[in-house]
Amino acid sequence: MRGPAEPFHGLWDPLRAGRTLAGLDSLGAINVPPMKPRTRHLAAFVAAATAPVRPLMTARSLVSALACSVTLSVASAQVGTNYCTPAPNSTGAMATISDSGSAAVTLNNLTLASSDLPQNAAAYFLCSRTQGFGQNPGGSAGNICPGAPIGRVVGGVITNSGTTGTVSVLADLAAMPQPSGAVVVQAGETWNFQCWYRDAVTGGGSTSNSSDGLTVTFDVGSGDVLFGPVVNPANGHLYVLLGPSPWVDAQADARTLGGDLVTIDDAAEATWVANFIQAGGNLGQTWIGLFRTPTTSWGWVSGVPTNFTNWAPGEPNNVLDNELCTAMYPVAHPWGGATEWIDAPSSWSLPSVVEIP
Ligand SMILES: [Ca+2]
Ligand SMILES: [Ca+2]
Predict the structure, then answer these.
(1) What is the pLDDT of residues 161-205, one digit of tens each?
(2) Which ligand sits closest to the CA of 262?
(3) Which ligand is nearest to the CA of 311?
(4) What's residue 258's pLDDT?
(5) What is the pLDDT of residue 37?
(6) d(Cα 328, Cα 71) in Å, to the nearest integer?
(7) Distance 64 CA to ligand 1 centre (A)
(8) Could you give the domains of the chain?
């Protein structure tokens, strides 16, 4: 899990929202880590690059170097869209539903959450492929937002709001509850979710209430997931191997999947990632999340501090004059040993590893 906002210092400082950067290479999309712990991609900063100006002929290939004007803006953090109006509960507040993670069915990584519940209330999430609206159904104090048929207990978990009045559940897209039995969520389907919870009635007795609704349209995610997701047992993170693309496009896909290009914290993770890449059928150079700009030093695109590097001998050497991104060798190569890294131009089209905390 990523930490709070400390990584904004140093590397990240020039990349804050609202600034315009001149002279950046083809790093058209820059992302920053969440500002709150435990909330994924709360603030994804998306950059728009302009005006390729300077082609560079190299021994290897014709590489386009871009001089860019980059403007950063804040993108939406949530996968789904809220709808429907909840009713106040015994606290006087209206519970709201939110999500985090990914709408990609291949990743099965969507977490539903609800806040402003009463304390210590039993709660679960409803789901349906239709929307509806019913006021105080069956004596409930709330409004019902999904339409029939409604499935109950998404993720298979009845949870409790505890002292914080919040709940969250990892939805299982492979077993979405329906009255006729669990179904597998398909790409292209739209599902509607709502948090249902117990509430107390003044003077004794109990009733139920519910949050607003959340509608999510699922997709296939990145069109070229080669392998994964696979869980690394050392940290519980998901890893995905993507097909070849420039580094910036790979990082954009990583954000779509709810993660970033991989952050390698130590030699053990380097070895695990190299084995993962091989298991995915790739033996060549593979993008990882380490990058720099012409005016900043190497840092992880996830924002995690850079405490470990594993450069191949003689690297980073910036031999092509615009080597701003980092690739790993999963197996030994004349330019580097297994697990070792080189700097390379971001325009190279390489497979990449995504890490989803
Ligand atoms: Ca990592
Ligand atoms: Ca190099």
Answers:
(1) 999 999 999 999 989 999 999 999 998 899 999 999 999 887 778
(2) 1
(3) 2
(4) 79
(5) 24
(6) 30
(7) 30
(8) 6-76+222-356 (3.10.100.10), 81-217 (2.60.40)
Contact yes or no for 227/240 (Cβ under 8 A): yes
CB atoms within 10 A of CB 245: 19
Rounded to the nearest whole angstrom, what is the distance from the C-alpha of residue 318 to the centroid of ligand 2? 5
CA distance 222 to 224: 5
Of 323, 260, 336, the closest CA to residue 293 belongs to 323
- Ligand 1: distance of its center to the CA of 334 in Å? 26
CA of 315 to the centre of ligand 2 (A): 6
Q: Which ligand is nearest to the CA of 319?
A: 2
CA-to-CA distance for 45 and 258, rounded, in angstroms?
A: 14
DSSP string, 14-27: GG-TT-EEEEE-S-
Ligand 2 centre from 31 Cα, in Å? Answer: 23
Which ligand is located closest to the Cα atom of residue 345? 2
